[in-house]
Q: What sequence folds into this?
């Protein structure tokens, strides 16, 4: 039997690409990526779950090495979208199978339950694609938050289509990592796939492979505490920075008799000695922080920080009547 030379070369090239994707790009060689996708389901439950009153469960089914052509070859009724990772100068791809599309369209439309026989697979409409675009954007935000443990990577979702056209700089034989996630609503489940080309991971490969040392991966030693602690310290700092606190602007405080309080009624006037030029004390959780100047801009009151509260203790004592 003879083999056509060009066909034989193409087969050998494909086999080589598969070997590469099974080696350096294998998920178990990137413990940082495993950690990121390990927490992604929790983040997705918060981001995606709030579009419906039905409870959502998200599970990471598997992570595997493949090629871009295989991963982005969409079966019938499957839709996907390119996702721009501008900081990496590369593209990712999100793919929703027919059940994931049908489920999200139903729950986003206010569905409160599913028929006993389940949903029927159907060809997605343009409206379905627009709704799944909402799902993909929420997944993009979730993935960005999951990656923030190690690196900041904003993602921008492109148009949802039923046939993915690969970007010119990416070949169908390029190795990728695919992560399949199950979206489960009561009695129903669909699958969303995230495809990450190796080219997109190159700028952060050292981070993804260095969260746990090679010895720890092989079971010969403990995790690298310095890298691990650094990653969690970064996450803790970012979570604290995103936390919300209450600020209170105090114009004046004065003591009044209990009898005066008993006479309060709708329309009562409480006189203060302060003027519009008086300084305002800015408190957080009943702790004085700054002295501020009161102003107005665009129909709203504003405060401009002048100095730390503790820098002028005499003014503070006077403010409190001490």
A:
């Amino acid at each position: 039997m003879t083999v056509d030379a060009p066909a034989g070369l193409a087969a050998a090239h494909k086999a080589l690409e598969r070997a590469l994707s099974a080696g350096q790009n294998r998920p178990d060689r990137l413990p940082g990526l495993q950690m990121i996708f390990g927490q992604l389901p929790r983040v997705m439950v918060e981001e995606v779950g709030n579009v419906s009153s039905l409870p959502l469960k998200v599970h990471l089914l598997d992570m595997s090495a493949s090629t871009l052509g295989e991963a982005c070859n969409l079966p019938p009724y499957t839709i996907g979208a390119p996702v721009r990772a501008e900081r990496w100068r590369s593209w990712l791809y999100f793919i929703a199978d027919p059940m994931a599309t049908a489920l999200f369209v139903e729950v986003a439309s206010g569905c409160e339950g599913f028929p006993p026989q389940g949903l029927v697979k159907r060809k997605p409409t343009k409206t379905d694609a627009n709704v799944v675009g909402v799902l993909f954007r929420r997944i993009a935000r979730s993935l960005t938050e999951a990656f923030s443990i190690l690196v900041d990577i904003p993602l921008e979702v492109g148009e949802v289509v039923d046939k993915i056209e690969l970007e010119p700089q990416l070949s169908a034989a390029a190795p990728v990592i695919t992560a399949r996630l199950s979206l489960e609503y009561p009695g129903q489940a669909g699958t969303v796939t995230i495809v990450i080309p190796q080219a997109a991971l190159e700028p952060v490969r050292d981070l993804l492979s260095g969260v746990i040392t090679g010895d720890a991966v092989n079971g010969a030693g403990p995790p690298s505490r310095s890298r691990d602690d650094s990653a969690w310290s970064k996450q803790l700092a970012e979570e604290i920075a995103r936390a919300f606190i209450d600020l209170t602007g105090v114009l004046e405080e004065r003591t009044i008799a209990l009898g005066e309080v008993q006479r309060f009624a709708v329309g009562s006037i409480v006189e203060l000695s302060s003027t519009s030029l008086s300084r305002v004390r800015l408190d957080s959780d009943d702790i004085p922080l700054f002295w501020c100047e009161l102003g107005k801009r665009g129909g709203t009151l504003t405060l401009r920080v002048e100095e730390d509260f503790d820098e002028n203790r005499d003014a503070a004592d006077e403010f409190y009547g001490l």
